[in-house]
Automatic annotation (TrEMBL):
Enzyme class: hydrolase
GO biological process: DNA repair; proteolysis; regulation of DNA-templated transcription; SOS response
EC assignment: 3.4.21.88
PROSITE patterns tied to this protein: HTH_CROC1 (PS50943)
Record's protein name: SOS-response repressor and protease LexA
Length: 204
């Protein structure tokens, strides 16, 4: 089922017309018609708005259908965006720079919304995260002490181990060459945890 059929399915379940959906998304009804027929595809910001409105993860729009055969079970895969940049305005996170898509086994996903990041640099080599590895991130706005998270600092995404104490957050690298980033309460508005590291996909 391509993305257009998924949009149509969600719209029909809500008993909405193409005009209704177009008005919510700020586009023309002809755009919705083109998406549903497969003649065109929506931009990621519109996919994000639809995910929020229909209360589904963004990955829903890119999942491959499960093929069923009587003798050979086939694993279900999901196509996830590889995100190069993320913006956060008015409390809403938007993926701004989609560098491509990668299929991952559905068994890796256990509820929630997921996306992929590419590791850059050597600050997390102690956790066996190397430059160029793909990182499977589950989108969430908090993690437990000691867990590895994707953190948005101003306009930069960093991957660090997170420790919280007395209102202060410490972002710790897994490389002694890098000093920890200490975020005090007065600086909290400049950072935001955007997801938890779930799996490292090695770059061979």
């Amino acid at each position: 089922m391509h993305i257009g059929k998924r949009i149509k399915k969600l719209r029909k379940e809500k008993k909405m017309t193409q005009e209704d959906l177009a008005k919510i998304l700020g586009v023309k009804p002809t755009a919705v018609s083109a998406w549903e027929s497969g003649r065109n595809k929506p931009l990621m910001d519109k996919v994000g708005l639809m995910a929020q409105y229909f209360n589904v993860p963004i990955s829903y729009f890119f999942e491959e259908d499960k093929l069923e055969e009587k003798t050979i079970p086939i694993k279900r895969f999901a196509k996830l965006p590889i995100v190069g940049a993320i913006s956060c305005g008015n409390g809403v996170i938007a993926y701004e720079d989609i560098q491509g898509y990668e299929e991952v086994p559905g068994s890796w996903l256990n509820g929630g919304e997921y996306f992929l990041l590419e590791a850059k640099g050597d600050s997390m080599i102690g956790a066996r995260i190397m430059d160029g590895d793909l990182l499977l991130i589950r989108r969430q706005n908090d993690v437990e002490n000691g867990e590895i998270a994707a953190v948005l600092i101003d306009d930069e995404i960093v991957l660090k181990r997170v420790y919280k104490t007395d209102g202060t957050i410490i972002l710790q690298s897994e490389n002694p060459s890098y000093k920890p980033i200490v975020v005090r309460p007065e600086d909290m508005k400049n950072i935001r945890i955007i997801g938890k590291l779930k799996k490292v996909i090695l770059n061979f």
